[in-house]
């Protein structure tokens, strides 16, 4: 049974023209043996073109489920209500074909484990070039040159050599930067990165965050950077939204949220003051 549906409580106010992701009153309920679980409760936020929004909150606060709902990646048994617009397109309640087109063309998603996004049997150059060829009218040779250029932009050393390597030949941090290069090639309007540095050594976290900044600069996309550790991303976001128990409880600048949090316990990360 499909219980995913779109519900609206009347007209949604129109957002400014440069808002590329407009989430309104988004809620997600899972059914379990113990009864319904309200994982996301009435989340509303907007992100503008070129802006970086951090979504922070302790583990289990609903950060991933919120973005999975936007991307249409939740199990069909999840009940999703509310609205999420990417540019002028409502994405909640879309069918599989329509939402996968949005994922391919408008939103790029970057997960904690880069291997979920990379195909082990193709070289990284092939995978980047495929994304380039889908979005630009270029020859294969030009797509390969663009792949080398993108590897360089995300900070991969020796891109001419690396381009012919397979995902398993790269370190975790490099793989994540390849995923970001593919996102760039897709020329998205929104990049959602869910804990992109969590599985990586502290020494390479900064490189991945810099690669995300390069992607944002290059494409002009809005970046939604999801993390349980505000300390890690503090220098890389313009604004922060804090989630707690499925709700978005506060938004503000990094300074506001870090040094004057309205709900300090909501962060669950007071040990990570920079
Ligand atoms: P986080 O903020 O750590 O990303 P999540 O968004 O993953 O948290 O999870 C929010 C809540 O939803 C948690 O209680 C989690 O156990 C629950 N949850 C996540 N995915 C599912 C699912 N597919 N089925 C049932 N419950 C889920
Ligand atoms: Mg998560």
UniProtKB/TrEMBL annotation:
<comment type="similarity">
    <text>Belongs to the ABC transporter superfamily.</text>
</comment>
<feature type="domain" description="ABC transporter">
    <location>
        <begin position="23"/>
        <end position="270"/>
    </location>
</feature>
<protein>
    <submittedName>
        <fullName>ABC transporter ATP-binding protein</fullName>
    </submittedName>
</protein>
